[in-house]
UniProtKB/TrEMBL annotation:
The keyword Ribonucleoprotein does not apply. Keywords: Membrane, Transmembrane, Transmembrane helix. It comes from Paenibacillus oceani. It comes from the Bacteria. This is DUF998 domain-containing protein. Signal peptide: none annotated. Pfam families: DUF998. The chain crosses the membrane at residues 18-40, 60-81, 88-110, 130-148, 160-181, 193-214.
Amino acid sequence: MAKQLVVAKPLTVTASRFALASILSGALFVLLLCSLHLLQPEFDPTWRFISEYALGNYGWMMHLAFGLLAVAQISVAITIFPHIRTVTGYIGLVILGISAVGVIIAAIFVTDPISVSPDDTTFSGSMHSIGAMLDYTPVAALLISLSLCRLDVWRPMKRVLLTSSVIAIVSMLVFVIQIPQNGQFGPEVLAGLFGRFLILADIAWLIIVGIHAAKLGASNK
């Protein structure tokens, strides 16, 4: 017997605006990140973290980019809150909220250079690392996607939502595997490359959710 879909409540005007905010914030994040690759080529993208762009002459752009990522996360959480009906979905929202807090912390505190040994980290660098470790957007994406797919209006997006969230999960696992146990990074460690895949996978899911939510909001007018 086919599983019965749950009818979702129409999105409010406020929710629709937050959906648009998530799309705009996500797109601007990607634009800033791409610009930093061109403006600061001294940071090899294969093994240097994106956080290190905050150490260069255009560091303010990386701070702004992290802020925009947090805005996208918070906006998506507010947008889809009325459509969450399961414990799994609520857990996903909590994780997404914690992730946003982590990104805000990472935006405020500047990272240490990747060449710094764990014993020589600064307070700012330690706080940045704590913020980064709080970001579990891929896990939130998967849990939220599983919850949204139960609703009639999100059913057409089931394949896209689940595929994008699984890609984010895989990217996160591969990134974690790249982290050396001794904390010593070098050109042979491709953590920077896979870290970029991870952040782009996160942004892709946020924008996908935002776009569909915006369409739902427009159809209710």
